[in-house]
Amino acid sequence: MVHLEEVEDQDLTRQQPGPLEDNDDDEADYTDTGSSLSAVPLIEWVQSNIKPIPDSSLSSDDDIPSSSLAPSESALDRIYALKDMIPPSTRRSIATGLSNTYSALKSTALFSGKSLYVLSTGGLMVIVPYMMAMVEEQQYMEMEREQKAREVGSEIMSPGAQVGAVPGAGAKASL
To answer: DSSP letters along 53-69, please?
Structure first.
C-alpha cells in the first residue's frame, strides 16, 4: 500500500518582506488626509442613503453603442487564438493539405507560364514569316493584275499595235 505524506512548501510559510502591520503612523505619511472628515462615516452615509437600482432599469446591450462593444483585438488575433481549440493532429493535417495545395498551384502556374512562353515564341517564329510571305504573294498578284489591266487598256486604245512595242522603234532614222 502506498502512503501519501503532505510536504509543505517553505516559500509559502516564510514571512514576506513588507510593511509592519502594527505601525499606525501610515496616516502621517499623507499630507492630504489632515481634514476632520473620516472615510468611515462617509461610507456609512452612502450605504444608508443610496437605494439599489432595480434590474429592469439597467440598460441592455442594445442601448450601448456598437463602437464601445467592439473588441480591441483584430480578426487575425481571433483566428490565431483558435489555434488552442484545434488539436495538433488536425492542425498538422490542415497545414499539410494547405502546403500541398500551395505547391500544386505553384507548380501548375510555373508550368503554364513556361508553356505559354514556348507556344507564343514558337508561334511568332512560324506565323510572322508566314504572314510576310503571304503579304509578298499578294503584292505580286496585285502587280500581275495591274500589268494585265494595262495590256487590256492599251489593246483597246490601239487595236493593231504590238504589246510592249515602243512607237517609232520600227522606223529608220532619217538624216
So the answer is: PPGGGS--TTTS-HHHH
154 burial (CB, 10 Å; 0-12 / 13-18 / 19+) is: middle
Question: What is the tally of helices (H) and strands (E) in the chain?
Answer: 5, 0
What does the block give as the cell for 112?
A: 503554364
- 155: number of Cβ within 10 Å: 13
Q: What is the 8-class DSSP label of residue 26? A: G
Report residue 114's pLDDT band, with 50, 70 and 90 as the boundaries: very high
The pLDDT of residue 170 is above 80: no
Please write the tens of the pLDDT for every residue from 42-53. 667 666 777 666
Give yes or no for a contact between 33 and 27, defined as CB atoms under 8 angstroms apart. yes
Neighbour-count burial for 31-66, b at 16+ CB within 10 Å, e otherwise:
eeeeeeeeeeeeeeeeeeeeeeeeeeeeeeeeeeee
Question: For the whole prediction, is pTM greater than 0.90?
Answer: no
